[in-house]
Each structure stands twice: as C-alpha cells, then as structure tokens.
Amino acid sequence: MAQSTTLPAGRVGGRGPIRGFLDATELDTRMLGMVAALLLIWLGFSIASGGVFLTPRNLWNLSVQTASIAVMSTGMVLVIVTRNIDLSVGSVLGFVGMVMGVTQAEILPQFLGYDHGATWVVALLVGVVVGGLIGALHGYIIAYLGVPAFIVTLGGLLAWRGAAWWVTSGRTVAPMDTNFELIGGGTDGSIGATASWIIGAVLCAAVVFALVRARRQRVRYGFPLRPLWAEVFLGTVACAVIGGAIWVFNSYPWPVRIAERYAEANNLPIPEGGLFIAHGLAIPVLVALAVGMVMTFLANRTRFGRYVYAIGGNPEAAELAGVNTKWVKMQVFILMGMLVAIAAAISTARLNAATNAQGTLDELYTIAAAVIGGTSLAGGVGTIAGAMLGALVMQSLQSGMVLMGVDSPLQNIVVGIVLVLAVWADTVYRSRIK
Amino acid sequence: MDGTPLVEMRDMSISFGGIHAVDDASCALYPGEVVGLLGHNGAGKSTLIKILSGAYRRDAGTIVVDGTEAHIHNPRDAKAYGIETIYQTLALADNVDAAANLFLGRELLTSLGTLDDVAMEAATREVMGRLNPNFQRFKEPVRALSGGQRQSVAIARAIHFNARILIMDEPTAALGPQETQQVADLIKQLKAEGIGIFLISHDIHDVFDLADRVYVMKNGKMVGDARTSDVTKDEVLGMIILGKCPPGATPGPGAIREA
Hints:
Distance between the termini of chain B: 30 Å
Shape of chain B: globular
Strand content of chain B: 15-25%
Number of strands of chain B: 11
Shape of chain A: globular
Radius of gyration of chain A: 23 Å
Number of helices of chain A: 18
Oligomer: heterodimer
CATH class of the largest domain in chain B: Alpha Beta
Helix content of chain A: over 70%
Order of helices and strands of chain B: EEEHEEHEHHHEHEHEEHE
Order of helices and strands of chain A: HHHHHHHHHHHHHHHHHH
Number of domains of chain B: 2
Structural class of chain A: mainly alpha
Largest sheet of chain A: none
Structural class of chain B: alpha/beta
Largest interface: A-B, 30 and 34 residues
Distance between the termini of chain A: 32 Å
C-alpha cells in the first residue's frame, strides 16, 4: 500500500506549491473563491463603516437575517439542478406564514388556550404539511402534466400571494405564540454561551470523525489517499472556523436593560460594569445549520440525491437507467415546499406577525443565493453549502449597505450588478478550468 | 437454430405521428448468438431495439423471453429480464463520475440505507480494470473523459449486472481502430459466456465478421434475415439498399418479391 499513501508524484510536482496544495487537500477552488469574496466584502464594509461591520453584534444579526433565505436556497439548489426553477417561494412563504399565524393565534387558542406548550409544534407541523402539499401540487403539474416549471411557479407566484391575502382578507395576524417566537431569534431565541460551546464541540468532533472514517474506508479498499498533513490541515481549519464563529456569537451580550431585568427576576447580583450574558447561537441559525446538514446528507449520501444530480446531467440517461425521473422531480418540489414552510416560520416568528406581503421578492434572493453559490442554471451542478454561502454573501451586501446608509434604490442596483458579475466570473472560471 | 430463443420480438409496430417507424417486424436471438441488425439511417433499427430496452412503448406486437411473454413497459422492466443496452448516445450523466454512472438506478447501499460510494468505486475499479486497464480517472465527472473512456463506462454498466441479452447500438461509432478491436474481443468473450447480443449498425463491415446472423431493415420493415455464412457482403448490401432478398436469406414482409 506504499504507493497509495500519497498522490502520484507527477500530479503534485512541477505545478507549483499552490496547485500541489489544492490537489492534496482536494479543496474546491470555486468554494475558496467565494469564501475569499465574502471576506473581501466583510473587510471592505468594515473599513468603510469604521469597524462597525465586523462587530459581534452585527455578525450575529447578519446570521439571523440570513437564516430564512439560506433555508430556502438549499431547496432551490435541487430545483435548479434538475433543470427547473421555482419563482413561487416568496408567495408560498407569505401564504404558509399566514396559515401558521392564523393556526396559532386564532384557531389553536380556542382548543388549547393561549401559550399552550404544544401550540408551536402544531403550528409548525401544519405549516410544513401545507408547504409540502403546495410543493406536491407544483411538482405534479410540472413532472406529470409536463407544464414548464417557469410557468407553473410563475402562476404560483401570483396565486399564492393572492391566497395569502385571502386567509384573513389582508389583516395582519399578531402576536405569535411565545414559544413559536423563539424560532425567529432575539434575546430569548438564542441558546446562550454554554450550549453554543457544546454545539461547537460536537460539530468539531463530527468533522474529525467524518475525516477519520472517510480515510479508514479508503484504506480498507486500498484507494489513493490524501497526504496526512492535508487531512490534519482540513480538520484544523474546520474546527478553527467553527470555534471562531461560536466565539463571535458568544461575544455579543444581551442588551443592558434585558440583562438587568433578568438579573432582578432571578435575584442575581449585578456586577461592576454591567451583567454580561452572551447571546450565543440564535435558534434560526441553528435551524438553518440543521437544514443545511440534512440537505447535504440528502444530496450526497442518498439515492434521491444521486438521482437529482443524474437527472440534471442528462434526464434521458437517468430515465433509460431506470430512474423514475417524474417522481424524483415531484419529490424535489415537495421538499422545496417544506423548506419554504420552515423559512416562513423563521420569518413570521422574527417579525412576531404574519402579514400578507411577507416574503415578497424572496424568490429572487433565493435564486440569486443559489446561483451566486455556484448552481448552474443549465442543471446538474450546485452544492448546498455553496448556496448557503451565497445567501450569506447576498445578506452581507445588503446589511452592509444598510449599515452604511446607502439609499434603498441604490442597494437594489448594487445587488443586481453583483449577481450578474458573480455569474459572469463563474462562467469565466468554468471555461478556464476545462 | 434449435432450442428456445433467448428473446423473440413478434410483429412489432410503432408509429410516431402517422409515420410507421417500425412496421410488423419480427426477430429472434438465441443464447450465445451475435445478431447484426442492419439498415440505413432511419430504417427503424434503433427504434425496434428501443422497444426491447423499454425506452419506447410499442403499438402492437409481443415480446417473448425464454418462451414466455414478457411485459416490458419501461427500462426498469427490461433490466429485470436481464436486457441491458449500450445506447448510441451512451446515455451517461456527464456531471457525475464513472461509479455513479455505472450504478445509476442500482446503487449499492450501506446497512443504513445511504449510498456506499466506496464499495461502488471499488466495483467500478474492478470492472474498468478488465475493460480498460489504463483508466484512472475515477473521481472526475465523465464529461472530462475521452470518447473511448466514456464508451468503456457505458459498456461496463451494461455487462456488470449479469446481462443475458445485450443490445449494442453503434458501439464502435466513436472509437479508434484499437478501441474498436477491444470491443470486438469483448463481444467474442461475452458470446462465449452464452450472452445473446444484438449488434446494431449501418455499416455492414462492422458487424459481418462478428455476427452469426443478420437482420436487415428498410423503411421500418424487415427485409429478411440470413446466416452470415450463407450470404456475401454484396448480397447483404443488396438487401440494405434495394430490399432484395438473396437465395441464402429468409425473406421477411419488407422484401421485394421478384416477379
């Protein structure tokens, strides 16, 4: 097995140390480029805003603001990979948000009373089921009746926005159930320092475990391996990023007033210089991370995911190989609908109200996040992690501009230009690499 | 030929928008036999064979496998009968690697129900090692492979799952002389293992040396069939171009009757 412990010398040698490094770590250069772009945006805003952008408080807010679009972008990747599109997610978000709002604020209290512990679970379940059914309807029309996804979801864009209005004849539903509200983040909707560190440690352990397990498997079958230093490097960087993120979230304290009230209620002494209670990870961010992991698992480790990519690469080949392509496409839309429901929960909870305008234009941000994250509109190419990173890039731009006091019309212009530039850069990158 | 045919297609018809792509065509394939299916472009060869592989649904006709009627409505059904196809277009998903293509629709799973990529890669390395020993690009999407390498992936997919009936649609169209010879050797080896092979081509030189029998199609109709030992290449060319059946051949419904 001596020859299989490192890559063939010819591949690493003679191509420069950077090339060799990339080959050894098998890192995706596209992804690295995106991370670099993100850091550049952050650095730029930080300098322009006099350091305000890169404060724990702003980064924490950024993470919460990104959650809803990030959740939807994971589903949009699969939709676009199968050569479809979903223009309806913003309107479906509005409708499902309305349904969940009415369920918890008007229907359930009649049976359970106000602030019953089960209210949020029932409301969320109702939302996910309704979202799934809407997705199933779209998917059925697209896959089995053969109407192009663009048309079906364009219809959905109009229809579900109308339906959202119809649920309460345009009336805003508020407030949400107090437990449901936690899904949206806020001071109470964060898990605090200790729990955040525990989650960080678990994530680190998972990364190390996955690296070790993958290496063992390859050794067992005698496949070529990454050099050991590359494995250690990957594990270290991943753990450092996780630890750094947790540290930032834990550096953002509760507002002074809320902390004081909390101290009074719990008979805690207030120390000199104020009480420091850390926010830690916000619940919506946790939800988005969990969704990202589940979706990555679905995309990479299951038959369903394999079929999604095969259909995107060559629909005819997938069909001839015996894949039930229509059912897979319908499943993708069902999944999309369920993810929209989760995003709707985050956004209504964060606003503490369900309005019929909620999610307007979200379809475009979601598609933009997926595309900036490297999803090809030609189908077959795209990653969940890329799309979530894309969502973070989009949100960083927007929130940075808000911080800088850029006028809202100008914000849209910038976001529009960045979208086009990002896809152009990607096109150039792809044609170079081949 | 003696015994029960491996597969028999009786009186197959299919039309697309009023055009009879295949009209009342019949053919049979016996174990260990290589049967060439010849005809011009558009003669209906690929269409006939796509009915057998489940890609098209026939309007009329019966498919019999091992003497009993087979119900083939989609590619999955055909594979269940041990019918594997190497399509002219290769039908590969370009964006995924060789292992993913080889096992597409028949993925190996771990005990947890997840994809067992390592086991699939191991099996792919093994089968590709036999077909194309120089092949090393297991991690790259098949888009990045050469024509011959892509062809070997398509062939590997067809033979890995113990096919009993193999359909090869223009298998050497994209290949150089050396690779064509490799495919010819492979066909002989599979034939020795008792697999029945349909070899489709519009070029009789490709198939004449390999095939035991040839069927000739013209305008969707079967001109006739002949043992390659009983007819000459020129006579078969006459069947392809003119639809004229020589004395050594058995005429079909599409043959021109000489007055």
